Amino acid sequence: MSNRFYRAALLAAFPIAFASAASAHAVLERKEASPNAAYRGVVQIMHGCEGAATTRVTVTIPEGVIGAKPMPKPGWQLGTTKGSYAKAYQSFHGKVSEGVTAITWSGGSLGDDEVDEFTFFARITDEFSPGATVYFPVEQECAGGADKGGIAWTQIPQAGQDPHDLKTPAPGVRIIAAKAIEKVGSKGDAPAPIKAGDLTIETPWLRATPGGAKVAGGYVSVSNAGAQPDRLIGASIPQAGRGEIHSMSTEGGVMKMAPVEGGLAVPAGGNVALKPGGLHLMFLDLHDGLKAGETVQGTLEFERAGKVPVSFTVAPIGAQGPAAQGPGMQGAASAAAEHQH
């Protein structure tokens, strides 16, 4: 019997071990996620149990959520339970068939009149479609032995049932389409920055291509306001067979370019800028040319934030920015180097 089914059997067999939920509450801070994308789960414990302090919190990772990793918490011991998935899921590193199925923080003390957060990261697979809800059962144990017990926030509503009718509902995350990712305000006619979790993506643009060109350069700025690093691992546009991340350098007066293996790190609290003459996106196997002034719908893919839809503006050949600028000497050299593969 797998660990997750064993835990479910225990909860069904011994419900009396958990006290009334009248004086406690457990919720997830982030209540929306997209399929095939990273999710930062923040479990908020709002109260203790009948006046007793919380000493243990366990989150069950549901089937269809993979690659779960907990965030350590000062003063608490961290433990994980691993088990087999019901089927193999596609990840960035190939198929995965097992992983973390439960995370436990224990040994601390959270007073009945205090609140705190317990954080984990995971990936929502495409097992879930927009409109579905993914539930993360939470068990909260408190000091005081059997008299205080704990609370199992594990009830999942049946089809058509109102979750508010449940005494101890499991925290849920609603699945939304990737295109619903929040856009933050912009000034003037500049494209609006795109907010994807902790990332802010600004000014994605491409250079127009001459007739018969098979490659095109792309550029973008990404900042990370979160506490965890992310990584840009891919990009795509409909006009190209594939997209890669490249670096450019000059050695002995000769420009050299090479793929960035393993993706490009976006540090926590930092940013990375892809621009002419340095790091950039390279779109290969073009089957349609890119014309200045048009807009191209594409995708950036991140290790944590997942696939993010973006709109690339197309600037003239050799432009140094998204505005219609001439290439200049350096721009012309960069353009030539980026189109020689």
TrEMBL record:
<dbReference type="InterPro" id="IPR007410">
    <property type="entry name" value="LpqE-like"/>
</dbReference>
<keyword id="KW-0732">Signal</keyword>
<dbReference type="InterPro" id="IPR012533">
    <property type="entry name" value="YcnI-copper_dom"/>
</dbReference>
<protein>
    <recommendedName>
        <fullName>YncI copper-binding domain-containing protein</fullName>
    </recommendedName>
</protein>
<dbReference type="Pfam" id="PF04314">
    <property type="entry name" value="PCuAC"/>
</dbReference>
<dbReference type="Pfam" id="PF07987">
    <property type="entry name" value="DUF1775"/>
</dbReference>
<dbReference type="InterPro" id="IPR058248">
    <property type="entry name" value="Lxx211020-like"/>
</dbReference>
<feature type="domain" description="YncI copper-binding">
    <location>
        <begin position="25"/>
        <end position="175"/>
    </location>
</feature>
<dbReference type="InterPro" id="IPR038507">
    <property type="entry name" value="YcnI-like_sf"/>
</dbReference>
<feature type="signal peptide">
    <location>
        <begin position="1"/>
        <end position="24"/>
    </location>
</feature>
<dbReference type="InterPro" id="IPR021174">
    <property type="entry name" value="UCP037139"/>
</dbReference>
<dbReference type="InterPro" id="IPR036182">
    <property type="entry name" value="PCuAC_sf"/>
</dbReference>
<feature type="region of interest" description="Disordered">
    <location>
        <begin position="319"/>
        <end position="341"/>
    </location>
</feature>
